[in-house]
Sequence to fold (93 residues):
Amino acid sequence: MIRTLHKMGIRSSMLYAAGLASIGLSVAAWTASLKYERAGIDRADRWGIFVGQWAPALFALGTAVRIEETREELPQEFQRMEREMRTPAGARA
Fold:
């Protein structure tokens, strides 16, 4: 699933941003529910907690996608280092 997300073009920074946005949305949902619904603070708390629970999942997915991004970058970095080691020191400058 993580590899598929990465291949679809979803980057870890996008998921981290979505996690931060969900925290803000949680506060907004709590405030809106408290202000516009007559159900009271209990209902507002439920809305805030419901939306707030998205943040940890999005941060975890962001971390998993970041690991996938790093996994792709490492072989390229090793190939570059190997080429540099083969090149004579005078030819690099």
